[in-house]
Amino acid sequence: QLSETFPTLDCSQCILTPRTVEVGHHPRIRLHTYSELTGLQGEAGAFTATIRRRAAYVRWDLCTGCGLCQSKCPSRVPAEFEGLLGERRAIYTLSPQAVPNKPVIDREHCRYFALGRCRVCERLCPVGAIDYEQQDQVVEEPVGAVIVATGYQLLPLARLPEYGGGAVPDVIDGLQFERLLSASGPTAGMVRRPSDGRVPKRVVFIQCAGSRDPERGQPYCSKFCCMYTAKHALLYRHRVRDGQAIVFYIDIRAAGKGYEEFVQRAMDEERVLYLRGKVSKVFRDGDQVMVWGTDTLSGRNVEVAADLVVLAPAALPDPSQRDLARVLGLTIGEDGFMEERDPQLAPVDTPRPGVFVAGAAAGPKDIPETVAQASAAAARVLSLFSRWEREVQVQVQADGCR
Amino acid sequence: QLSETFPTLDCSQCILTPRTVEVGHHPRIRLHTYSELTGLQGEAGAFTATIRRRAAYVRWDLCTGCGLCQSKCPSRVPAEFEGLLGERRAIYTLSPQAVPNKPVIDREHCRYFALGRCRVCERLCPVGAIDYEQQDQVVEEPVGAVIVATGYQLLPLARLPEYGGGAVPDVIDGLQFERLLSASGPTAGMVRRPSDGRVPKRVVFIQCAGSRDPERGQPYCSKFCCMYTAKHALLYRHRVRDGQAIVFYIDIRAAGKGYEEFVQRAMDEERVLYLRGKVSKVFRDGDQVMVWGTDTLSGRNVEVAADLVVLAPAALPDPSQRDLARVLGLTIGEDGFMEERDPQLAPVDTPRPGVFVAGAAAGPKDIPETVAQASAAAARVLSLFSRWEREVQVQVQADGCR
């Protein structure tokens, strides 16, 4: 979903796709997609996981992923993957590089499910994979350990009315801006504003939209917004050479290898204007978006007429997290994120032995930190298994001596 | 060396000591202390490491760690572990919880080595462990992988003359302040200033001393100073209830679980005064330390007469790092830290297979990130070994079929 990653501006699709494909093909990995964990019995080393697989209404065992159904489906829906800036059909893959690359039917928007007629996909499918009668399936898997890696979501724009969120079409969030920057996105990588498709000549970026805001939003810092905003401003200036980028910030939190230098580059080479201050109001004014704020360094009020406003909304835990915590017997912190056994010293352990947590599920984290945590969680599982294996071997040996 | 850790204020000694002791006793860990790696031949899975063990002038195979020599040695030296605020003897353990807890003789300060006479420790040692003739030893170890975890050091105070570093006795660095806060430190946990032992009633903390300063210092952000400064200010206020704490900062980088809330607590509950601005000059004025700076929020110059100034100097790589990089065939980045194979996607790998890096050796990192990286590096080693083991097994099998 991201275009390029800070501070190296690597293409994230090029990095991720080979890995997800490899996971999909790995002989010793069984992948349950479109599924949720609904139960976990037993103990570390010998859990039984109950997994509910949602009905896709497509038999993936037959489907070849040819894509014909998706190109002919008559029902068009705003695409979640594109931050609603692009379209998908009612039968669709969850992302362009989905693994496996096979579609599901969105029951709510499917004409057949809504009106009882259509069946275009069923008629066209060359292998007869469409199955409107498919039911959710529940499977059980013996597993030794569980790693929770449910990530984050952004605070919905509609919960940021003071910034015009949800009301002004040219106020978008950071993930939407990623899609505008992406060569495979709805604008093929051209920065165009949603309302009229014009290339915006002045873009205002607002950090901490709902973060560090105990009164109206979340008290915590969402950690990665400072850096992605710097990246957004820099990439915008690369795309629109005569464009002006203005960033409102409280503190610039560029703490990581090469991060400080990256922000300096945005300021010096790309002349991104950083204004320290909180924005008080964003509203529509003709075909522009007015931003009212205070520059706390000069102490003056600032009024900017922008063509596009990009918010960096607070990072929230995934909505599935509360249910998952109940299933796993874990606790959710005041901030809504999973609680680690010890955030300092056992950052990927949870209070339940054999259940680990990695990445933003336990709080906002950037990519390098998430990668390190993923490896760390794998190490914790390996160390658990090696102990467990030894115990089993000892057990076997003891039995043999009887 | 740290007193309590942010944001939970856990006692770091209580956390670390059981672990280092466990490592010291583990049947499958061979610990080389007081040693450096001087060569690495071979390849991943089958390296030969050459290790030079410095002469301790004490036979650790005989020494019982009774400590008699250390209490009777007549040569007193400022203790590095105490940030030179306390004393040690010429025969000493590198830290109070050293593993193994056995002493070394500091040749430079030992009277026998300097003047040819004394031998007090030799005379007193109940087991005859003192050996003035001991030589450096070189040993070779077969190892499968190497993890570089050389940490960081602070920019020396003497390189911060504009802040009075090295010239004004009541200008100290963050690690020295840790020792003043520590119950086992030179002041038994009372905050007393070095010059006259008085309890300081107004303490100024200066962040980014040499960090984020491409002209005079390091261009990068040292990442953990914002949080330890908030902790210092808060703990100072706990210790000195009528004391005033003032922090000069550029940005408050409190990005981590519970970090933002911790800084808010320092500001709100402990009334720590945060001034956004750069300090231009620090100098001695009678028995006080004058701090001149600018409050960039009000645009006014600020002049504070402080009793004690605590700098947060830039974090530098360990001085051993350049030699180590040469030995390991690794590259050092422009910032002086080890270069990872890919700072985003392979943050604990290095370009050399079988050699990994964890923690601040590759750039400043806080405790949770370092713990996660340590586990991640362990996972990378395990995954390497499991592959290697399989290959060896395959090899053995193939040999057997001949």
CATH topology descriptor of the domain at 152-316 in chain A: FAD/NAD(P)-binding domain
Mean pLDDT of chain A: 92
Looking at the chains present, what oligomeric state does this protein adopt?
A: homodimer
- Output the strand order for the largest sheet of chain A: 12-19-13-14-15
Helix/strand class of chain A: alpha/beta
Number of helices of chain A: 9
SSE sequence of chain A, one letter per element: EEHEEHEEEEHHEEEEHEHEHEEEEEEHEH
Percentage of residues in DSSP E strands of chain A = 15-25%
Description:
Two copies of one chain form a homodimer. With 402 residues, chain A is of the alpha/beta class. Among the domains of chain A are: 55-135, Alpha-Beta Plaits; 152-316, FAD/NAD(P)-binding domain. Helix content of chain A is 26%, strand content 25%. Chain A has helices spanning 12-25, 68-72, 111-115, 120-124, 174-181, 225-239, 259-268, 321-328, 367-401, and strands spanning 4-5, 10-11, 35-43, 46-53, 76-78, 87-89, 91-92, 104-105, 137-143, 146-148, 152-154, 171-173, 202-209, 244-249, 273-276, 279-285, 288-295, 300-306, 308-313, 315-317, 355-357. In chain A, the strands form eight sheets. A five-stranded parallel beta sheet of chain A has the order 12-19-13-14-15. Chain A has a three-stranded antiparallel beta sheet with strand order 3-4-9. Chain A has a three-stranded antiparallel beta sheet with strand order 16-17-18, with no helix packed on it. In chain A, strand 3 and strand 4 (46-53) form a beta hairpin. In chain A, helix 5 (174-181) runs parallel beside helix 6 (225-239) and helix 6 packs parallel to helix 7 (259-268). The first copy, chain A, is globular. The first copy, chain A, starts with a strand and ends with a helix. The relative contact order of chain A is 0.13. Chains A and B meet through helix 7 and helix 9 of A and helix 7 and helix 9 of B.
